[in-house]
């Protein structure tokens, strides 16, 4: 049976450590969060980010908008937040309302305040092997989990399934930077099972419940499940058939309490790190 990777515990350790460091600061870090969509999941994510920020002593300002918000108003707000010396991190909760252009908004954020690491400058720096101002939170959290459990990545065959800008592509880059040999699969990939069967580490980020079945996993492989899909019964499902795959894998993340808590912990860590860099 696989070791169940405890993302919740690992995230709590990061948050406790941050809380301690922040308590010693005279001026507190601050995070601005923009919510411009009426998706219930986004609202929950933003409420949660606000709650955790407050627990840590990070000043959180949430800007909530209804559908009447225009692109121009959002652009003006980003300019104001960029210019505001009291704001260290800016987060735009995606997706935005359909009539808004999210890429234009992300590109307007000062890369030094881009707490999600989505700005092309930060993505580019990551790809060039340079230090970005911030690394995307979910991929950063996955690397931390792998390191915490001392999983050796050097020369290992890693398959990342999913090629989004927020998870798949950046985690593939980070794993490459850790000297793994990375294959990036997606919905057009042929014979996925043949690829996953050969993998020492599988990272699945598709939002497709039970995509990864036990017969797709090599004995002793490490399985990281990023997927979160809300089922009809209200429970969350990952991409991995957890109950069966845990009998084949050596390490596995559960859903929930796996990668999810690490994402928010890394967001808080990024806010703190941006604060330090801006102060320096
Ligand atoms: P996304 O933008 O929808 O991307 C999904 C990716 O999966 C795409 O690249 C897609 O391929 C690929 N894909 C879909 N079905 C597939 C299949 N049957 N076989 C192979 N590849 C397939 O999603 P995302 O934003 O990256 O998020 C992915 C999942 O992670 C979601 O469940 C999301 O809720 C979850 N998530 C979790 C966290 C966390 O903190 N745990 C954070 C972010 C996201 P194409 O490119 O060819 O369409």
Question: Secondary-structure map with pairings?
Answer:
Elements: E1 3-4, H1 7-23, E2 30-35, H2 40-56, E3 59-64, H3 71-83, E4 89-92, H4 102-108, H5 120-127, H6 137-148, E5 157-161, H7 168-177, E6 181-185, H8 192-196, E7 201-204, E8 222-225, E9 229-230, E10 236-237, H9 242-245, E11 251-252, H10 259-279
Helix pairs in contact: 1-10, 6-7, 6-10
The structure holds NADP nicotinamide-adenine-dinucleotide phosphate.
NADP nicotinamide-adenine-dinucleotide phosphate binds at residues 138, 161-164, 166-168, 185-189, 205-208, 211, 226-229, 259-260, 263.
**The CATH C-level class name of the largest domain:** Alpha Beta
Number of helices: 10
Number of strands: 11
Question: How large is the share of residues in beta strands?
Answer: 15-25%
Number of domains: 2
Walk me through what this model shows:
By secondary structure, the chain is of the alpha/beta class. The protein folds into 2 domains: 27-110, Rossmann fold; 137-260, Rossmann fold (3-Layer(aba) Sandwich), CATH 3.40.50.720. 41% of the residues lie in helices and 15% in strands. The chain is built from 10 helices and 11 strands. It has helices spanning 7-23, 40-56, 71-83, 102-108, 120-127, 137-148, 168-177, 192-196, 242-245, 259-279; strands at residues 3-4, 30-35, 59-64, 89-92, 157-161, 181-185, 201-204, 222-225, 229-230, 236-237, 251-252. Helix 1 runs parallel beside helix 10, helix 6 packs across helix 7 and helix 6 (137-148) crosses helix 10. The radius of gyration is 19 Å and the shape is globular. It starts with a strand and ends with a helix. The model has no long low-confidence stretch (mean pLDDT 97).
